[in-house]
Structure formats: C-alpha cells, structure tokens
Write a structure and sequence with these properties.
This protein is mainly α. The chain has helices spanning about 5-30, 35-60, 65-90. The mean pLDDT is about 95.
Length: about 90
C-alpha cells in the first residue's frame, strides 16, 4: 500500500467517524436513539481517531466522559505506535 492510499484511507474513515460523532451529538441534544459508544470506538480503532479526537473537543461531545476519553486516547497511542513501528521497520 502506498502512503497516498493510506492517507486517503485514514481521511475517509475519519470523515465517516466525525459524521457519526456529530450525528450522536445531535441525537443526544434531541433525546433520540443514540449511536453506541462501542460503534464509535470501533471507528476510532480502525483509523478514524485522527479526525474524531479533535472533533470531540470542537463539538464538545464525549470529552467529559472519562471512560470514553481514555479509550479514545488509547486508540491514538496505539495508532501512533503502529505507524512509528512500521516506519522504523521498513
């Protein structure tokens, strides 16, 4: 996989994740059926964390929930460690 495809993948997954996060925020403020946290975390762990984490703070959603916050930061640390390991291996 070339770096361009990898970046496009991260952007695509991130944009979908941000849309899901914004949708969950809208549903929370309008007392509608919510998106499960597990679903949002899965989107983070498959690469959406790079856009979803900043979006959490911009739209002020899920950033005060400590359990959600720690899992999100763990996803970011794992992604950074994985990218670092890949770059040092190849």
């Amino acid at each position: 996989m070339t770096i361009q495809y990898f970046i496009l993948y991260l952007l695509a997954v991130g944009v979908v994740g941000v849309i899901m996060l914004c949708t969950d925020k809208y549903k929370a403020t309008h007392e509608k059926w919510r998106i499960k946290e597990r679903t949002l975390h899965i989107k983070e762990f498959i690469g959406g964390i790079f856009l979803m984490l900043p979006a959490m703070y911009v739209i002020r959603h899920k950033n005060r929930k400590l359990a959600y916050y720690w899992i999100s930061w763990a996803a970011l640390v794992l992604w950074i460690a994985g990218i670092w390991a890949y770059w040092n291996y190849y």
